[in-house]
Amino acid sequence: xxxxxxxxxxxxxxxxxxxxxxxxxxxxxxxxLLIAEFSHGQLRVIDRLxxxxxxxxxxxxxxxxxxxxxxRALECLARFxxxxxxxxxxxxxxxxxxTLRKARDPGEFxxxxxxxxxxxxxxxxxxxxxxxxxxxVSRSLPDVDGEQIVIDIGGxxxxxxxxxxxxxxxxxxxYMGCVGMSLRFFPKGKITAxxxxxxxxxxxxxxxxxxxKFRRGHKAKRVAGASGTIRAVATVLGEMGLxxxxxxxxxxxxxxxxxxxxxxxxxxDFPGLxxxxxxxxxGGVAILIELMRELRIRDLVITQGALKEGxxxxxxxxxxxxxxxxxxxxxxxxxxxxxxxxxDRVELTALMLLDQVAEDWKLDKPIIRRLxxxxxxxxxxxxxxxxxxxxxHGAYLLQHADMPGFHRNEQRILDSLVASHRRKLSVDVVAxxxxxxxxxxxxxxxxxxxxxxxxxxxxxxxxxxALRISVxxxxxxxxxxxxxxxxxxxxxxxxxxxxxxxxxSGYRLVLNEATD
Length: 516
What we know:
Elements: E1 2-6, E2 21-26, E3 31-39, E4 42-51, H1 67-84, E5 92-96, H2 98-102, H3 107-117, E6 121-123, H4 126-140, E7 147-153, E8 158-164, E9 167-174, H5 178-185, H6 193-214, E10 222-226, H7 228-239, E11 247-248, H8 249-262, H9 281-294, E12 299-302, H10 307-319, H11 324-335, H12 340-357, H13 366-378, H14 390-400, H15 408-419, H16 438-455, E13 468-472, E14 475-481, H17 482-487, H18 489-504, E15 508-514
Helix pairs in contact: 1-3, 4-10, 5-6, 5-9, 6-9, 7-9, 8-9, 12-13, 12-16, 13-15, 13-16, 14-15, 15-16, 16-18
């Protein structure tokens, strides 16, 4: 069943679709779409769609998505795709969370999903999910002077964040969610005291490694809970008269006793609990009560803001001058002692080369230019480990680092560019990049980065101003003056070696030695 909330012109006077922004959250329990516009720094909601797809329940023991779950998901995305048809691509972001992170070889499903949506899907890390949730929650509540904690219980994972104002300081993602917990400890909907004890113990064990870092619930100025699970619990507790506003541990203990008395999910008669939420309700409650106990949370404020809102605020920042990805790049430059002057030189050269070939090589999207520039700035981070194979060290750091603002595909593209910027150019490094078309783009961007590094080996601004590059499908022609090549024999030798490297990867490098 689809839940639809539309605000008409009587409630909100909105502009054209060119002013709208959209976020799609492909969660483990539900798929949700939010369309809004910004007014005075705040979101004005235009439309919402939500469907309980429960793809987490479709993962088998080998982490493969079953056909029924895929079909439910694709039917939902076809409906979402129609609603998104007129939203500009750079004002829309689609993210996949825990289940799509865990799914084994979801490529075919992702390809079909992207066709139906008409947009690429970003599969984000748990840490990035926690960051976006924190932003969404902090922007949706009044400001507080001091530290705040945000928790979100999803279908497949639970996210925790601590920060001040709109800036998170500590982030964590745990592999437990209301769907998985319900399937594991309450199969066929059966509720007993023993099963609840087992579920709570499992939640407590999952929390123990990170509890100390977040155990400040009694001192924080505010602890806020996001997500459908927490909102559903608050609704039920309120209808039962167990709370006035905020969730408490005592109220949760009373709720658990009631659930045990019912004996089975099918018997639930809680006011405010929907049929769609009931099958995963017990698992969510088990996680929530242990969160509150382990983190010493006295009461939990409920918020409507969460991942979708965080996506939109983050996206709005990308369209202005507050792109969180740029902050991440700068932080990594500092952490790994990047030579900023050399990074400037390589970035300038790489982008100069890109400008000359972007149309012929179909590299004219803004994100392509950004990724090449960022790779140029980070190509030497591996030197902080060792010079030998520093490109591989750098790629490893980029592959495994928490990089706020980046989704998994962007991060993989960056690590592939850094891995292949010197020595042998391996097509295998980028062969399985998603979505479709990125493998070819990454190879071509790697070639441009390689040339930019090669021309800046002397670490001075002495690369030839008259350098010209032209390309076709599998060949690159560099035009350089004969005099410059004679004055730079090391670069000339490097270019000859580069010919061999590129030839092995199916590309032909030609030097056009023009006379002055």
